[in-house]
Amino acid sequence: MIKHVPSDEASSQRKKRLQQKVSNAAQTFLAKNALLRDQNKSLTKFNDEGKARRSAKSAILGKAKVIRWEDLEKAQAEHAVKEAMKAKKEAKKAAKGAKRVACAALRAKKATAGKQKRGRKQKSNTIWANAPELKTKVARISEARAKEDEVMLEP
Is 79 buried (19+), middle (13-18) or exposed (0-12) by CB count in 10 A? Predict the structure, then answer.
């Protein structure tokens, strides 16, 4: 089945050509592979730069014109000041809204304090009659709450 290859000069030249062909193919493969890896690295680097650029917030500093670096820094500083003022104004607005909500809740609490609750009445009169010290404690607590409410209403 296996043929014996004669070892004459023609067959040895053929073997050398085949070996040379295989070694050239291996070198070509390795070179192409290295080039592809290098290209892949550079594309990955470009992609990462693009991601950083797209994720950064763009700020419009003025009209489109050619300006010096100093002017650009000045415009950025002015823009930062404007942004800080805007944030301060928003915080002030939020605090004012929170204060309004607190005052409205306090007014609602005072409005419902004098009204009786609906439903079945409890037998609490007997408890209060037997415990005068509880009445004084409740009175002190209600006075403290009234003082807190007065402090909260003052701007």
Answer: middle
What are the structural domain ranges in the chain? 11-56, 86-112+129-155
> CB of 153 within 8 A of CB of 106?
yes
| Contact in structure between 53 and 67 (CB atoms under 8 Å) | no
CA–CA separation, 149 vs 102, rounded Å?
10
Sequence letter at residue 26 = A
Q: What sign for the dihedral angle of Cα 122, 127, 128, 134? A: negative
One-letter amino acid of 25? A
100-148 tens-digit pLDDT: 888 888 887 776 666 566 666 666 555 555 556 666 666 777 777 766 6
Neighbours of 61 (CB within 10 A): 13
Strands (E), 18-150: none
Residues contacting 134, CB < 8 A, separation 6+ = 127, 128
